[in-house]
User: Fold these one by one.
Assistant:
Number 1:
Amino acid sequence: MRAMNYRGPQRVRIEDKPMPEILHPEDAIVRVTRSCICGSDLHLYNGNVPDTRVGMTFGHEFIGVVEEIGSEVHKLKVGDNVLVPFNIACGKCAFCKQGLYGNCHESNPEATAVGGIFGYSHTAGGYNGGQAEYVRVPYANFGPTVIPEGMDPDDAVLLTDVVPTGYQAAEMGGIQKGDTVVVFGAGPVGIMAARCAWLFGAARVIIIDHIEYRLEFAKNYAKCEAYNFKSMNDPVVFIKKETDWLGADVVIDAVGAEAEGSAMQSITGRKMLLQAGSATALHWAINSVKKGGIVSIVGVYGPTSNLVPIGNVVNKGLTIRANQASVKRLLPKLIEHVKNGTLKPKGLITHRIPLEAIADAYRIFSDKLDNCIKPVLIPSTAKY
């Protein structure tokens, strides 16, 4: 089969790789019909996540058709169109029983934090991902969800990560009616978080980034205010001024390890890798939220330490909530939001690119070319 092959930082290509096989009775083999490149993939692509190994296939956002099932799979059948959550969860361990599907203890048992993730580094289990024609899906009785009849596949593929992650970012913020919510990062997840903030009763939603076309897109899609931090002397002071010097009620970090805006953070976190990414957005979030406020973190950082102002967290009495989205928990309500038109995920998609052109797709998305917000990859084997 044809699949993305990681050859080192900023080097990806399409190559022939062996077809995935059933390795466990609860496995399924899925023929991919849509996959995405995620901002989290760019952390891997740029060499910012430990233990990202040459030869891996990335891709944790994909949908497809079930081609083969293991002998103990009874909740799927061959021919089902399925969306596959990015987190690999058994559904049975102590953490899955709490609904913490991003922290499954069975899919990544050697880790102390995150569960298994498709197409991510070996810190997340080392599973090959969906930027390929076919993919092996473990725990097929639990993870994959049959796509509702009539749902647009472009909507369905964004239910694997972008929509639930953005929604959970807002949910973890504990947004109350009348709150001012600030989102750092106008990538797809940040834009979706801003859109979902309204669902929880926000009275004002502000998104901050430094790329003008993304800010303009966010204003139109999420119906929020959008500001360029490069036009400000200090984003924290700007937010304080906008909130009667109290600070925002809720701040969401949807940027993570590759945040710009601080030379020191960029040098130590992105160039020298002395910390697990640049924590600039997290600094801004902690310092711009009100006393007693909530910081919600969905931006991805590495599994080692970061330079963060923990003293301000303590002295301001902040609540910090963070996790990988528990996709399976959120899917029922999100599917309903898509069905009734409350959320329109496919509106985020700006580029549909053949899987064979994956090197160009990564370059376009990474370098912010051609007004790219969200690229979707379509394998030649996709039949719908």
Note: DSSP finds eleven helices and 17 strands in the chain.
Number 2:
Amino acid sequence: MATPTLTFLGGVREIGGNKVVVQDGPDRLLFDFGPSFSPQLEQYYVEYLKPRSTSPAKDLLEFGLLPRLEGLYSREALADAGLAWKAPEFHAVFVSHAHADHAGYLELIDPSIPVYLGSGTRELLRAIETSTPMRYGDHAWRVLDDRRPVRVGRVEVVPYPVDHSVPFAYGFLVRTSEGTVVYTGDFRHHGPRAVDTHAFFRAAAEERPEALVIEGTRAGPDSRRNLSEEGVRREVDRLLERHRSLTLACTYPRDVDRLSTLYSAARAAERTLLVSPRTAHLLVSVAPLLPPGTVPVPGTAADLKVYGRKRKRTYLWERPFLEEALSSEEVRAHGRNYLLSLDLVHFPELIDLRPPKGSPFIHSMSEPFSEDDINDRVMHNWLDHFGLVFHQMHASGHASASELFEIVRSVRPSVVYPVHTEHPEAFVEAVSGVRLPELGRAYPIGGR
């Protein structure tokens, strides 16, 4: 009988792009399938230059941004791509969470291959498809239950909820015929669901795993502050207490925890949180899947309203949120009453809002990875033009380097494979048993 293997088709020396294959005999399982945030992608495609919608697989394969795999992609995706379609040779795809770098290429996968994911993640993908151009394709969707094993051939997969900057994230225990592989997905210890992360790694340690595939986003040089969600709340509270003008905040659109933090801070400061129709749609979509009161729901939550940008065209899904939306004139006239969550793409609203000079701008997202980040430069150009004062307040969606290394020591796997990091060598310097994965190489599982 062939030894089970691990193969890494993405996430190697890059942030995002995880594509991990576990094969045990004839059974092949893929864990996550999305683009990376690496410079390699930006060598060919940027915000204004994208793969063609008529042939995305062809355009990505051209530059090695997709693995040339037979038996994975759909006929439609491979049209004119120079890679022949074959009947599916993968038996399941498991999605750890709804971030684009883990789920963004699902549309390319053959629709007959089952895709396993949490019920919350499935709902998030629906909400994203409704309110953005993003598409995930038609699949044989299979909804996971927390900690309930799923068997695919001879492989058993146990999904464990973990804390991350998007809700409904999972890590997986993958039990093969020669031992367990622990795949962490993305996780953190300092968010509101930290207890889930701790429970996952306790279970992982009890498995005495043969391999630990661990994300290492913050391994290596990292000057970022390690704020918790509670720390963000305290800093926002202090800022709102000091200022009596319109306050703006920019955060990730699917960071439900951060939106809840901003909402609570706004209410404590006797302000109303204003969100976009897209954010309102997201909150309405996920609220039924979370404990009551976990997230504010537009239309029922006090001190939560929608900001209505001037638009030539509106979509059906957003029209219910626009009926009582506040205009720029209202917000400008009574700015001290509001905390406005404003995405970078909506910065032209500042031309109408014209907050007083010195008004605070809360950047509740990660700091730029490099000094030449063009989005960061453009953002500061706008802030400087309107005289807004920048404040960095963010709790990362990822564990710190010291936390990562402590996890490895507590789980005690035979082999550690760092992925989702540009600095895997940091693990080598800190813990034992590290093997730096290479793209496309199959590593045996077992042999403890």
Note: The first helix runs from residue 39 to 42.
